[in-house]
Amino acid sequence: MKPLIRRVIAGTVAIAAIAGAFLAGTVYGIESDPYGDFPAGTLIAAKTQVRTALGMSKGWSKSNADLTDQIRRACPANALVVVTGGQSNASNAISTPFDADPAAPVFMFFDGHCFALRDPLLGTTGTRGSVWSRLGPALAARTGRPVVFVNGAIGGSQFSDWTDKRSPYMANLRRRVADAAKQLGPADIVLWHQGETDAWFTTSQAEIQPEIKQVTDTVLTSFALKPAAKLVLYRASLCTGARRRTSNQPLLAAQTAVAAANPRIVLGPDTDRFGRRFRHDDCHFNDAGARSMADATLALIAPMLGAR
């Protein structure tokens, strides 16, 4: 058989296999979706089934590293260093980008340097706005200290993605925090907002709680943090589709239990209470939602960080 014909046949077989896997995945997604959560939930299940059937590795997302239009600044002395992680509502998925007041002493650390805090933030995914650009100026004003964010949230990620040995997420953020510590000192606090993707899959507290614990334990024991630094673990599960239209109680219970079991973890605000009118697409916060989350966070952490 001629090489060209062999290549054509091999290509046809590969295309047929991918198409068959996608069809099977779609059927699986529909069948495993008793809530009729189409298309959001069905596509989540379909993609997972296709990837598993074909033995494909998960596609790991890349964070924003575009330094175009970013304003480099000298890193401040005596700064509060705030680490942020999780998924899209902790990344650049807010409807409206927001640039902090240029006069406010608020920064972000990336690639060995400090930059003015502005959306979209460096080190995380997405191209829109963030909660942290709204939180930063208020936190600096309340504490009387400069604030530097070290960001790393990955949109769409599950807790297990942060502990998967093939995933770069945890290692990238750990390295970024270590680099920041060389110039700014160990971090003062970690803000971790995650749960919306896991809410589609989670049906019991027992299945998700060990994954949340593994993520938080890894952050607290391997990141360059001050000995007294706390991790704020938000409660979050609302997102698009019928299955996530109301809070996932097993997931919220797991988040609550993980926080209760570790004195270095503080149970964060329940952001599920910021319902549909606080979201621009039923999942990601609009400006009102971002400000509400920032306000709730400020009320919780400002006293912990020496508010005046």
From TrEMBL:
Keyword list, A-Z: Hydrolase
InterPro entries cross-referenced by the UniProt entry: SASA, SGNH_hydro_sf
GO molecular-function term, one example from the UniProt record: hydrolase activity, acting on ester bonds
Pfam families in alphabetical order: SASA
Start and end residues of each Sialate O-acetylesterase domain: 141-292
Protein name as annotated: Sialate O-acetylesterase domain-containing protein
Annotated organism of origin: Sphingomonas sanxanigenens DSM 19645 = NX02
